[in-house]
Amino acid sequence: MIGVMVPSVFAEPVLYDENLVIQEYARDIGWGYTTMTFVGDDILLLQKIGVVSLIRDGVIQEEPVLEIDVNPIRESGLLGVTSVGSIVYLYFTEGDSEGEQLGNRIYKYDWNGEKLVNPVLLKELPSNEYHNSGAMVTGLDDQVYAVIGDTGKYGPLQNKPLEKLHPPETKDYMDTSVILRVDPEGPYHAMGIRNSFGLAIDPFTGNLWATENGDDDFDEINLIPDKFNSGWEAIMGPATESEIANLTGYEDYIYGDPKFSWKKVVAPVGINFGNFKETRNYDNSLFVGDCNNGHLYKFELNQNRDGFVFSNPDLQDNLVNENDSTDEIILGTGFRCITDIEVGPDGFLYLVSHGERVIYRILPIEAVAENSLETNIITSESLETESEITTSENKGGGCLIATATYGSEMALEVQQLRELRDNQLLQTESGTAFMGMFNDIYYSFSPIIADYERENPLFKEAVKLAITPMISTLSLMENAESESEVLSIGISVIALNLGMYLGVPAIVIVGIRKRI
Questions:
Q1: Where are the domains of the chain?
Q2: Residue of higher predicted confidence among 12 and 408
């Protein structure tokens, strides 16, 4: 591994391992896709708004294979998928015809090669606008697992003392903060999960691993044995002796420290193992993607495959503290937000990047000769400059200032802006034209402001105070559906913001001058 210089704004993805190559496998897939599963050689790709699309031979098909009524607000919507042969399992926040949440649901479908058919409801779960999790995975024994976060509802499976719970609520909150055995159904596999977007099965041991997002600190990578207690809400990150002593037990679920933690949150999401056919050099590698930095990490497993080994003393405590070097584990960067990592039938890694219109494929250099004619290989010579990336018309761009301000591409405010862009503005000609002009101006200065925010916490807080009222007013645009509504509501929102940011201060200044 060579030294890593991480770019301050997202650019074309690049790897720092000369023995691995990254390709664009499927291009121009559209916005809002988050996770996928393989059915044979085909990919079923999930769009948060309730659309399941088919990618065949690297091309996204025009007709969806399934459309579902969901409530896609914030961390809700079509969230998870896995498959066992021709049976496909979906986890989603079901909505009625008006879009109101009915709850999180897990269904199974039959895949007939063209459509998902014959839905069967397997599980009804609590829901909220956030912490629904939804990641799914299939074990080596075909056991299907799914994870649900706390959904903002604190129940006994979140290490809450029973005497502090209201009995009428307890039953409703039992299916929160757990990893579920979905099919076949069985006891909870794990409890105490705050919020997870990634599950993976070790192809050699069958062990279950997960990423877990912390609150204001401590993101985790966990090995999840049966009857595992991850500690939330009492513990995030490595536990102290007093935290363990005060932990409220639940039946025979046993607490275990995370196998790796970041003290400063990075939002780890997608996770999976290397299992390339052409080389055995990555058999002991666990790949993890984050959402805050666009990094792809590579962790080396120990001999027992129940933890990691590091050469850097900074990491040997399995914790990234402030000022610790992470060069050893950063395999690549520039991926925006890696929401899923899957292993294809060819043994290659496939990455879904939320915010991009591409599915990336990572393969060993030994396989390049066979596959280089099929897809575009990204090399250092083909990388665009950062300014070209951010002003490119074929990319929607990221909310750089909002992401730096609120700390994550998954922050509620950032997702609100993204959904407004994708679901309202880009659905109309006038909105698309506006976004084109806006991007030309916005990306001329936003990388500088975003960088300065990361370096200056006080400036970051000032920006947050300045833009939060504007983001609140933009929620009015969610009611715009037609071309005329986008224009009329858009003009009203602009006028409202001009009044807030220019009119009110002007009135105050005039009033002060009159008194003087």
A1: 1-27+270-379, 389-515
A2: 12
